[in-house]
Write a structure and sequence with these properties.
This protein has 17 helices and no strands. It has helices at residues 3-13, 15-41, 46-55, 63-92, 100-116, 122-147, 151-170, 184-187, 198-201, 210-228, 230-240, 242-247, 252-275, 292-302, 307-323, 336-347, 349-378. The protein is mostly helical and 379 residues long. The model has no long low-confidence stretch (mean pLDDT 89). The protein starts with a helix and ends with a helix.
Amino acid sequence: MSKEVRTKESLWRNNGFQTIIASLLCIILGLLVGYVVLLIINPGGAGKAIIAILKNFLYYPSAAAAMKYFGTTLVKASALLMCSLSVLFAYKVGLFNIGAAGQYVVGAGACLYLGVSLGMPWYVCLLAAVLAAALAGGVSGALKAYFNVNEVISCIMLNWIGLYLVNMLLSQVKEQSTPYTRSLSSSNKSALLPTLGLDKLFSGNEFVTLGVIMAVVMAVLVWLVLEKTKFGYELKATGMNKQAAKYCGMRERRNIILTMMISGGLAGFGAGIFYLTGIEQWMVQQTSVPAMGFNGIAAAFLGGLNPIGTVFSSYFIQHITSGGTYVDKTMYCTQISDLISAFIIYLCGFVLFFKLWLNRFLDKRDEKQAAKEQKGGKA
């Protein structure tokens, strides 16, 4: 076998390369299905609509306006990235944290209440968001560790408990004439994350803050913890086989609780770096948890369950979601981009299926090649 053939063979067996190919196929299929739906609704504007969704901020002919809205997409993508890391961290340890949405809500409630009501600075508010969300995740972890309650069930219930508790808490700091909380810019500017000059880079977009950088750094830290530390190894070992981990002297219950607490803290961190920019106010009358936590599931799997991959997948999901606002409203609703995202979410399972199928295909091909060479040698 030549060196070139061996290199090509190793490339196809490389886990990262397989993930990239599978994710790209997943995105293409999702966009094609979305385009078919647009054709069914109104074939006249389907082409322009799918282009508008893909262009997002590039819809604006002015470079300054495009950079400004690019910054807004980055702010939202950074929060989505933290939710995807939350889902990913738990999944790597054998747990499915569908409660990232509820933990995100709890984090938002904690940071906004401290910022608006108590006048705390941004770093205290951000720490409060992480700790409150970590405690929310720890509840599910404790139920799993001590009573073997499925984390999916407990997380779903805690999503709604967290939402209504936060609504009750933040109703104390809402504006008089609207259902929204008081803005940080008017009530406590010290609670706003510092921009570090990034606002000037994005055409005066004051919402682009330190949080964008912190989100990417956090993705790298999660990768380091999971792949390069003894602590990460113990967590993954506990997820693979709790009894074996216990036999090896690992504290399996502690690891399960810690995993859910870290997972929840990541989601809370996402809420903090989003709401402490002042980009949005919390509506205390909302009856559904923000989609950010659930979109994090799609971003995690689309990124191949790799912390670095989720940086790119989170941006892509947010890019097309924001792009939905630029479709022709006379023909389509803005939620059409959410529909396309939903298709991609369902296709995310294809990433794992494709890698499994490809490895089996390569194994069978190698077996046939080895049998052929062995037969030729005997002859």
